[in-house]
């Protein structure tokens, strides 16, 4: 019978553990081959997680994982083995740690650098209420590039609380780690941690079960903050991941193995990330003042070729979103034209810096916001739902949303020519094959003289609006940018019903902008706002999610008919 609970794991003989680790790796590889997933880090952490569940007794002892990329074996060992084949699918096993899914998931997280802070808070909460149990933070070495981890180290080291920090050191975040911390871990981390007030144990071979359990047992007995430094191999046990020098199989799949060779299931069609990176490469070749800043998103934002061609002008600052934005502000203040390539969900982490260090001084920083809108299988922690709402209120910031591939080039040119801050949001996925019918900007793509309804769009859902309006006397306008232009506001202020369509939260987004603009006018047409609901959208297939939320062509058509004849 497969081992699927910590209690069953602790009942095994030591001699059985190596076989269990092999079974866990086989299951992780098999499922990720079918549905995709964050493979590399989870393969590297198998022995570590088995050892953690042998030494500590979850859920009384709380295991707090940073991000969750490393935690697939934890899911398999905590009651989710039978359903693990549903990983990242609608109503299936969550892609990251989720306390609503299992009592063994001590704290939910899809962003790095949170584990130690949360663990310290959980431990303080236990002590304040007289509750038993230890708290362990399992932190990847990539998270040591992030400010929140250092803030927590400072706090924890000065406390009297015996928080346990397990450093899962595989030399990687998504790709190879950057900065001085990586050198510190290689040359000797003991003085660093001990100077902060931690007892240091290690480094330990992260694949030696006996050594790991001995170190974790010593940590459990420690009455002060303690760190166990375990060195692991990302992608361990799967040759294609081990041979992937760039990311060690960070997010692989789906795939097939044919004659012993891995064949990826994805097609070679250009993505929005690829298109933006290509446009950015051309601008960097023409203008030496254009620099790129990214918080450990070289591969995710398709910047690998730019690093090779412009090694001194692409700045990977590690998982440090706040630093990335203020660093870019410094570049802009010095006269350069920085472009910050960042996912929508990660830009949230640097909002104060966007406001205080970029928007307030009006610096010409360009934010290239990847994964804006629904991201599908990565789920609630990664949906790009809020960027329009939190950027739109900022004075002087212009936000563009390309619809067609050619728009990417135009939006980037407009942004680089601007005197103040700009942002370009684009979705996850492949580019539409059709060319843009008109230059970037306000585009009335359909404008019949006696329009029954006005479909107002911003970004790639314009294509679904056009499909919904095909063959009907409906106006379709792509507003091109926010704030709304006076032209758009004037033409919308007709006594014609409006449906706004956006792939972001309806609270503060395009629909809110339209309603605000019309509120001061004498004519108040009926307005229906389509967008992401007032809730966190969980994991699933993005196309199916759009259909379920009424953001595909049939859903837009239904909404238009409702507002025409309420």
Descriptive notes:
The protein folds into three domains: 6-255, Thiamin diphosphate (ThDP)-binding fold, Pyr/PP domains (Rossmann fold, 3-Layer(aba) Sandwich), CATH 3.40.50.970; 272-425, Thiamin diphosphate (ThDP)-binding fold, Pyr/PP domains (Rossmann fold); 443-564, Rossmann fold (3-Layer(aba) Sandwich). Helix 4 packs across helix 10 (209-221). The mean pLDDT is 90. The protein has 566 residues and is of the alpha/beta class. The strands form four sheets. Strands 9-8-10-11-13-12-17 form a seven-stranded mixed β-sheet, with helices on both faces. The longest helix has 19 residues, at 17-35.
Which properties best describe this structure?
566 residues, alpha/beta, Rossmann fold, seven-stranded mixed beta sheet, five-stranded parallel beta sheet, globular
CATH topology of the largest domain: Rossmann fold
* Category by helix and strand content: alpha/beta
Question: The biggest beta sheet, please?
Answer: 7 strands, mixed
* Domains (count): 3
What is the CATH class of the largest domain? Alpha Beta
Uncertain runs are none
